[in-house]
Write a structure and sequence with these properties.
Elements (H helix, E strand, L loop, with lengths): L7 E5 L3 H15 L2 E5 L2 H10 L4 E5 L1 E2 L2 E2 H9 L6 E6 L4 H9 L4 E4 L4 H20 L2 H6 L1 H9 L3 E6 L5 E4 L1 H7 L3 H4 L13 H14 L5 E6 L5 E13 L2 E10 L1 H23 L3 E6 L4 E4 L1 H7 L3 H4 L4 H5 L5 H14 L16 E6 L5 E13 L2 E10 L1 H23 L3 E6 L2 E5 L1 H7 L3 H4 L13 H12 L7 E7 L5 E13 L2 E10 L1 H47 L7 H31 L7 E4 H11 L1 H6 L3 E4 L5 E4 L1 H17 L7 E6 L7 E8 L6 H4 L17 H11 L4 E5 L3 E8 L3
Parallel strand pairs: 1-2, 1-3, 3-6, 6-7, 24-26
Antiparallel strand pairs: 4-5, 8-9, 8-12, 10-11, 11-12, 13-14, 13-17, 15-16, 16-17, 18-19, 18-22, 20-21, 21-22, 23-25, 26-27, 27-29, 28-29
Helix pairs in contact: 1-5, 5-7, 20-21, 21-26, 22-24, 24-26
Length: 748
């Protein structure tokens, strides 16, 4: 290949080692003739005396900004393709480069060798196709080989037929077609139907104006998915026919990144505007670029007054400005990490500093700072909080702390202070209540002594209280002693400031004996009332009927001859038997109801499928008599529970479902619903009847409530009590019939 046919590239880079790497890559991969300029001025001189097909520009140069040189080059007619090559990549810099006409953007990282060559190939072909008839382009071997390897897609469409007559591998891959498939299609096949009008207008504009600026459109892949592309077009003659050439670049990820950047900036502005802490942004020289309303209130400056001023002059007391200026200088040299330095030379996430308001008042702020890189300049994000009042409160607290400790240690109630997640103070009464030594309690998280089921609640409320959020300040709190005993406490808490930071203080009074007495009295009273009603009415009624039957039978036996009624003699024993059976059922249910409250029954693994087989067998005769069916899942799981109580739950629910099912062919189904919580088992029993009457729905599980289908009115109450004794829940609803959903928790 003669020298005149070589691709000529100008590398604008002041770092000699970087320039050598870029020169070697382009020469090796493209066979290019590469010249190097170390500054903007040198680049201008070389471009004025020679012709280049590609220019790479570093972002920061000794005598200017790479973006300015980029804009200057792309403003000229028939300008070469330009790539921005930078050491610090960020989304905003990339957006600015493309807005100024860059053909590509490459970051100097481990991917640079691959990305630089790909972007260079794409930029060269794009630029060459915009200036050259494709027939001549195809005749130039070195450009044609680049054309076949570029990452941008190329399509040539006949102007009259709008069918594709030329493409490249990148376009085939982008659309998902083979080359032969793609060349059998036309423009309408690769764009959404509702956008074809706009597409045709674009190509007509190309034909009239010869070329066009880049435009964002949608393309359709072979599989029907949409994606975003930037397209540049040019009118050309291909094999003697008027045609349009399009260069396609998939910008889907670029658009997503740009949208993410915009959303990120919007979120920052929204959060900063609503933040209660002051937020101040500064550049690496300490010049204020932004402050939120909270910072305006803290320092007394409006944002308009502060922006452009030096932070150490605006916000620092006069006698400390030099010291603050030196901190900014240290940051500028370091360029990353936390910017607030501790006095010992290390770094601290937060520190307190003297500050000064606009009107001259000296006060204390708590400040923390970090840095971010924006357009190759370090920015400081400073968060400040006026802690003057807190400091005063801390002083007052320190003064009274000794008095507090004396009073707390003399208190009969438990008193604790927690900060963060830990106890920081416990009195002797709290230690005695929990069974831990005071030193042991100070190693625990403050929620560790609560009942396991209440720990998340205690943690959330305790942490929220320290954040100043409103949470309940008094409630009954179950807790566990060191020995594993379960107790109840009357828990009262409030927020305080302890040693300069938010904390919570609580008093704890053990009320276990009161809670247990109250629970026992309430349960006993409720069951006593139900029992009295059942004995006085439900049991008394069948016994009275049996007694009346016996008296009638006695009188009948004393009669003889024509006065003796044989039919009545046969009927009376049946009446007596039914009455006695009903009374016996009531007594059995009352005994089951009493047993259902017991919480100390031995638990073993219970296979629910075996329980259901027993229930099905016991109800088989009734099911057959009514022509119905009982179905249940094969995998109903295993529960750690008392077998008798589990049987009572499923037996009562199934029996109740059949008893009150009004369907001509009654069907009952038992389903393992499943639950994500370990140790919790959720089931549903449903039938195909008319459902539960609304009037009964709220009282369905009350003891001694008998429905229209008869029964003792105790079965569902037994189920409810057993479920509750296992820490479960139960609910009834209608969904194509009556449904009862309940949970049982493994009893360890």
């Amino acid at each position: 290949m003669e020298m005149t046919n070589l691709i000529r590239v100008l590398v604008v880079e002041d770092d000699e080692s970087q320039a050598s790497v870029i020169r070697m890559l382009l020469k090796t991969e493209l066979g290019a003739e590469v010249a190097v300029a170390g500054s903007c001025d040198e680049a201008r001189r070389m471009m004025s005396t020679g012709t280049f097909e590609l220019v790479t520009i570093d972002y920061l140069l000794p005598d200017g900004n790479g973006l300015d040189l980029l804009e200057e080059i792309t403003a000229a007619e028939n300008h070469p393709a330009v790539l921005m090559v930078t050491g610090h990549g960020d989304e905003q810099t990339a957006v600015n480069a493309f807005k100024h006409g860059a053909s590509g953007y490459v970051v100097k990282d481990k991917r640079m060798p691959t990305l630089l060559v790909e972007e260079a190939k794409s930029a060269l072909v794009k630029s060459a196709l915009e200036r050259t008839e494709i027939d001549l382009f195809e005749s130039r071997g070195e450009l044609m080989s680049v054309y076949e390897g570029i990452v941008d897609g190329v399509l040539v469409a006949d102007h009259q037929t709008r069918k594709f007559v030329r493409t490249n591998p990148a376009m085939c891959e982008m659309l998902g077609y083979s080359e032969s498939e793609l060349l059998s299609l036309s423009i309408s096949d690769i764009h959404p139907p509702d956008e074809l009008g706009t597409i045709y207008e674009f190509f007509e504009m190309i034909f009239e104006d010869e070329t066009s600026e880049a435009r964002s459109i949608h393309c359709l892949r072979k599989d029907g998915t949409l994606f975003d592309v930037d397209i540049r077009g040019r009118r050309i003659t291909y094999r003697g026919r008027p045609s349009e050439l399009g260069m396609f670049r998939d910008i889907t990820e670029h658009n997503r990144a740009e949208q993410a950047l915009m959303k990120s900036e919007q979120r920052f502005r929204s959060l900063a505007f609503a933040a209660t802490d002051g937020i101040v942004l500064m550049d690496d020289e300490g010049t204020v670029t932004y402050m939120n309303p909270a910072a305006e209130a803290i320092f007394g400056y409006s944002m308009e007054e502060a922006v452009g001023g030096r932070a150490h002059v605006l916000f620092a007391p006069e006698d400390m400005r030099d010291e603050y200026a030196s901190l900014l200088g240290a940051f500028a040299r370091r360029g990353n990490g936390i910017v607030i330095e501790a006095k010992d030379g290390g770094e601290a996430a937060k520190a307190e500093f003297p500050a000064m308001k606009k009107e001259g008042t000296r006060f204390i702020v708590e400040a923390s700072g970090s840095s971010m890189l924006t357009e190759e300049r370090w920015q400081i994000i400073l968060t400040v909080r006026d802690v003057t009042a807190r400091r005063e409160a801390m002083d007052a607290l320190e003064t009274s702390e000794e008095m507090f400790r004396k009073l707390a240690d003399a208190s009969a109630a438990g008193i604790i202070i927690y900060q963060g997640s830990k106890f920081v103070y416990v009195n002797e009464a709290a230690a005695a209540m929990t069974g831990y030594a005071r030193d042991e309690l100070l190693t625990l998280d403050f929620w560790d002594v609560a009942e396991p089921g209440f720990r998340d609640m205690v943690k959330e409320r305790g942490m929220a209280r320290q954040r100043g959020e409103k949470v309940p300040d008094r409630y009954m709190l179950p807790y566990v002693t060191k020995d594993g005993d379960h107790h109840f406490s009357d828990f009262s808490a409030s927020e305080i400031e302890y040693q300069g930071a938010p904390a919570g203080i609580a008093t704890i009074v053990d009320v276990t004996h009161l809670v247990r007495i109250e629970e026992e009295l309430r349960a006993a009273n409720a069951e006593l009332q139900g029992f009295a009603h059942t004995v006085s009415h439900d049991v008394k009624a069948p016994l009275a009927a049996a007694r009346a039957g016996v008296e009638a039978f006695k009188q009948l036996v004393e009669k003889s001859g024509d006065e003796f009624d044989a039919d009545l003699a046969r009927e009376l024993p049946e009446v007596i038997l039914r009455s006695l059976v009903k009374a016996g059922d009531l007594v059995e249910d009352l005994l089951a109801l009493a047993v259902s409250r017991q919480g100390d029954i031995t638990s073993i693994p219970v296979e629910i499928e075996k329980v259901m087989l027993q229930v099905a067998d016991e109800n088989d005769a009734e099911i057959r008599r009514r022509g119905g069916s009982l179905s249940f899942d094969n995998d109903l799981g295993i529960i750690l529970a008392n077998p008798t109580q589990v049987y009572q739950v499923f037996s009562n629910l199934v029996r109740n479902a059949f008893q009150h099912n009004t369907a001509s062919v009654p069907m009952v189904e038992v389903v393992n619903v499943g639950d994500e919580t370990p140790g919790v088992h959720r089931y549903m029993v449903r039938d195909n009847g008319d459902g539960i009457p609304e009037l009964l729905m709220e009282r369905l599980f009350d003891p001694f409530l008998a429905g229209p289908g008869g029964g003792t009115g105790i079965g569902l109450a037994i189920v409810s009590k057993i479920v509750a004794s296992y820490g479960g829940e139960i609910r009834a609803f209608n969904d194509g019939g009556a449904c009862v959903e309940f949970t049982l928790v493994d009893r360890v």
